[in-house]
Amino acid sequence: xxxxxxxxxxxxxxxxxxxxxxxxxxxxxxxxxxxxxxxxxxxxxxxxxxxxxxxxxxxxxxxxxxxxxxxxxxxxxxxxxxxxxxxxxxxxxxxxxxxxxxxxxxxxxxxxxxxxxxxxxxxxxxxxxxxxxxxxxxxxxxxxxxxxxxxxxxxxxxxxxxxxxxxxxxxxxxxxxxxxxxxxxxxxxxxxxxxxxxxxxxxxxxxxxxxxxxxxxxxxxxxxxxxxxxxxxxxxxxxxxxxxxxxxxxxxxxxxxxxxxxxxxxxxxxxxxxxxxxxxxxxxxxxxxxxxxxxxxxxxxxxxxxxxxxxxxxxxxxxxxxxxxxxxxxxxxxxxxxxxxxxxxxxx
Length: 348
Description:
By secondary structure, the protein is of the alpha+beta class. It has a domain at about 255-320. Helices cover about 45% and strands about 15% of the residues. The chain has a 9-stranded mixed β-sheet. The radius of gyration is 20 Å and the shape is globular. The N and C termini lie far apart (about 55 Å).
């Protein structure tokens, strides 16, 4: 199959990023900039797939129930990041291509990390963030490994950054719940701009999970578990967390376009207002077609100002694993609610 290659200089790519977020850019300028950005995004598909395949093999050896997925960063997410982090340039953005492994426990996360880093691959480990032993104030916990692609055979991709995320099952459930509340409750928790009560609830919930996993809790949350659980349940009651998440789940519907098997990519098209998710699968040989369709939808939703629509192109081994990998697009918070029920049963 033909993989996309970047056809623009880093200077042009960075300029496109600046044009994208500038209020002074004309529609024509932004259109040209988006074309450059889409080419840059598509050019990450090959190195991303290479690192993802290796991650899948090692994760499967570490935990046979592991879940590995990959995605190219959405245009709207790129724009948001460039606006928030003015020191970040588009050509050096570390997570345009990203893959993730979810394993059963925090202990297995560290076993997977050790195996992945000690392998024979030549890619350069550019940066590492351990948000499990050093969790962020908002409660996010995961390990991020940022690699620069290196190859003698595919030198055109050398230096491109790919982010590898390693999470436990409960860490993934927490992150999924945050994204679902962001999507359906009009919050901005993922970028620390949400309601203070919601932010506190998720920080407390992350610490509760950390107690379960015997890892460091979130700064500013109680280090006494009984006090933590009491405050957690109080916040959950104030926000009606269980009722809200269950209500979101019950009104979700989904539509799958193109029946069959042997698909490699899945295009997720979410209408948050209508609570509908359309899924279009593509075969591996249709990677370019899938990328083009994704870009077309992003541009259409952007030009028509559809804040309640979202689109994402992902890869998972099968349709059955799609919901496990991206439960936020299905409004699935079952694992998260099970943990919250556990907290309520302890002392609430």
